[in-house]
């Protein structure tokens, strides 16, 4: 495993981390709980020391699975990240319906206790505001995060999916330890922000590095997802014409993977983590086989020539889209 210093936190974290959105089992197709727990254990056994989850992933299901996976004595081996800022009224139990953005003091204080219970832990290492809440002043949210730090419920704080103006304010309020944005060959829309706050000393995380599976080579035909599958609403590359354009990019990854005798996913992972401004990249896994395959990517690195080949294909994709 390879590790990087995580911004200004003092943590040394694995270059890849466990992404658990799919493990919620409600947004990206069914997941077997036993397989999910074995996947988390396999990642840890291979040296991964960072797990990312959130209450929104399966409305608590992902956090519950992570809690079960760590209850066997592995909690001390990992840095644990979860998120806040979204709650539900009574009604449909999924992210698309019934979810309300709420980063107010009272809501976050309730959310953190619910997460601690599901995760079976008494503290959270990193706590991110998942999405902006336009109805709550940032000062109130920042003060709440500072209160949680004082109480020992969280160690570090930050955001996922905010715009730069809010980032600047949160940075000035001294609660922007970590930022998390999508980052992959098929989504570089927040690259400038990742670079900017990396240079300011914030820890940086890229999510969606495998493009919900499209950059593993496992998806070669336009998929027909079940109604309500989050991949259709959250990503723009599972529809034409972008899907076919991504398939052109895959041909370049195929060539490198074939020459190196490795799976395409390992090429994808290395391209992401070999960017200096990415401290760790979230990689989703559903079972132990995928976990072992993904972590094996850390045993080697792309050459400058291979990175150039991929970059040219990525730039072509951006130009066409």
UniProtKB/TrEMBL annotation:
Which CDD domains does the UniProt record give?
AKR_AKR11B1-like
Identify this protein by name: Aldo/keto reductase
Which segments constitute the NADP-dependent oxidoreductase domain? 15-313
InterPro entries named among the record's database cross-references: AKR_Detox_Biosynth, NAD(P)_OxRdtase_dom_sf, NADP_OxRdtase_dom
Is Oxidoreductase given among the entry's keywords? yes
Q: What UniProt keywords are attached to this protein's entry?
A: Oxidoreductase
| Keyword Chaperone among UniProt keywords | no
- Which Gene3D superfamilies does this UniProt record tie to the protein? NADP-dependent oxidoreductase domain
């Amino acid at each position: 495993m390879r590790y990087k210093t995580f911004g200004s936190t003092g943590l040394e974290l694995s270059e890849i981390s466990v992404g658990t959105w799919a493990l919620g089992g409600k947004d990206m197709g069914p997941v077997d709980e036993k397989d999910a727990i074995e996947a988390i254990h396999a990642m840890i056994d291979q040296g991964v020391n960072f797990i990312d989850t959130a209450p929104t992933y399966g409305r608590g299901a992902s956090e519950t699975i992570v809690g079960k996976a760590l209850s066997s004595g592995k909690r001390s081996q990992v840095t644990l990240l979860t998120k806040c800022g979204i709650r539900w009224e009574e009604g449909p139990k999924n992210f698309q319906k019934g979810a309300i953005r709420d980063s107010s003091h009272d809501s976050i204080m309730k959310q953190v206790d619910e997460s601690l219970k599901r995760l079976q832990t008494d503290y959270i290492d990193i706590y991110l505001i998942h999405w902006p809440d336009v109805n709550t002043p940032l000062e109130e949210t920042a003060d709440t995060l500072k209160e949680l730090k004082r109480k020992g419920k969280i160690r570090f704080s930050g955001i996922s999916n905010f715009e730069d103006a809010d980032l600047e304010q949160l940075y000035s309020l001294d609660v922007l330890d970590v930022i998390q944005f999508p980052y992959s060959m098929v989504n570089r829309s927040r690259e400038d922000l990742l670079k900017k706050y990396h240079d300011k000393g914030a820890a940086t995380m890229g999510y969606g590095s495998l493009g919900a599976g499209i950059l593993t080579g496992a998806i070669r035909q336009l998929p027909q997802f079940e109604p309500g599958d989050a991949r259709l609403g959250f990503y723009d590359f599972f529809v034409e014409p972008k899907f076919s354009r991504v398939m052109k990019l895959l041909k370049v990854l195929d060539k490198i993977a074939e020459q190196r005798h490795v799976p395409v996913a390992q090429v994808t992972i290395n391209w992401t983590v070999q960017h200096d401004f990415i401290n760790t990249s979230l990689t989703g896994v559903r079972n132990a086989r995928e976990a072992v395959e993904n972590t094996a990517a850390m045993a080697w690195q792309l050459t400058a020539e291979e990175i150039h080949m991929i970059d040219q294909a990525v730039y072509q994709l951006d130009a066409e889209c």
